[in-house]
Design a protein that fits this description.
This protein is an alpha/beta fold and about 300 residues long. The chain has twelve helices and eleven strands. Helices cover about 45% and strands about 20% of the residues. The strands form three sheets. Strands 3, 4, 5, 6, 9, 10 and 11 form a seven-stranded mixed sheet that branches. Strands 1-2 form a two-stranded antiparallel ribbon. The chain has a two-stranded parallel ribbon with strand order 7-8. The two termini are about 50 Å apart.
């Protein structure tokens, strides 16, 4: 069945020459543009564009179709403009990338208050930067800078990666060892404990261990759970150790449900950045999301 939005998308790609620009004009994601275009090509039975680098060059068939539909499509758009309620406006859609835990701790509680549509995506930071550059994402919250000519970074906060333990763990022996400043004894005590880790990312543990013991950890966690927030909840009801960002467990440390064990001989700190494209049509929407993070900082 033919969807008239496919024609609208076809027109936008034809006039702008790129999927990214068409997505910005239509206030939809770039994958949405690709889906509309491929659906229309499947429907008509031939290619409408040749993809040359990032440019979309219309084929001869594409030119014929454009010339055939443009007048009718203009009339439909004029009808839509004249008959919709005058108070209605296009609502932009902003795509934001960050880690799952950051979303839960910060932005999740404010989503319903935002006066625009929001798509939240999780993933690896280098992949999110690629999506930002391509126009799939509009804003990233990231501790990693991947230098790109089209992307700018704004530092706004920092996090310290710390060693925490469950409320029931006996850390008195560790405290005595730490006072002796014996790194070998500290490492031995830590390896004798039960550890929590996550399924997707052991980077915090690896970096913490490398910084403090000049080696990679030669053990695997005893309990693998879905994410860092799961670790904090598990530790709140028992024993065990984990390495996590301090902002994820500040409340639990303050109320005593988990213990701060050690910041390490040299604290491991991450700077958090807002990453955006240098040219974006969503400056006001992005500024509002940034404001939420800055007020929470």
């Amino acid at each position: 069945m033919l969807n008239l939005e496919w024609y609208r998308t076809f027109k936008a790609v034809y006039k702008t020459g790129t999927l990214t620009s068409a997505a910005e004009v239509l206030f939809i994601s770039q994958p949405g543009v690709s889906l509309h275009l491929s659906s229309l090509e499947n429907y008509v039975g031939y290619k409408l564009f040749d993809r040359t680098g990032r440019k979309m060059v219309p084929t001869e068939k594409g030119k014929v179709l454009y010339n055939f539909i443009i007048e009718a499509l203009a009339k439909l758009e004029e009808a839509e403009k004249n008959f919709q309620r005058s108070t209605e406006k296009n609502t932009p859609t902003i795509s934001v990338g960050m880690c799952f835990e950051t979303f839960q701790i910060t932005l999740e509680q404010y989503i319903s208050t935002l006066p625009f549509n929001v798509i939240i995506q999780f993933g690896e930071y280098p992949e999110m930067v690629e999506s930002l550059e391509k126009g799939i994402l509009d804003l990233i919250i990231t501790p990693q800078m991947v230098v790109k000519n089209t992307i700018e970074y704004q530092a706004f906060s920092s996090e310290t990666i710390v060693l925490v333990g469950g409320s029931e763990i006996d850390d008195s022996e560790f405290n005595l060892i730490e006072k002796k400043e014996s790194i070998e004894e500290i490492e031995l005590w830590l390896k004798q404990q039960k550890w929590y880790g996550t399924t997707g990312d052991m980077e915090h543990l690896r970096r913490f261990w490398q910084l403090n013991f000049n080696k990679h950890p030669d053990f695997r966690p005893n309990y693998i759970v879905p994410n860092l927030n799961s670790i904090v909840r598990c530790l709140s009801s028992g024993k065990g150790l984990a390495v996590v960002p301090d902002f994820l467990c500040k409340k639990e440390i303050d109320n005593g449900s988990i213990k701060m064990i050690w910041e390490g001989k040299t604290p491991l700190k991450n700077t958090l950045y807002f990453a955006t494209r240098k040219k974006t049509m969503y400056q006001e929407e992005i500024a509002l999301i940034k404001k939420i993070f800055l007020e929470l900082n």
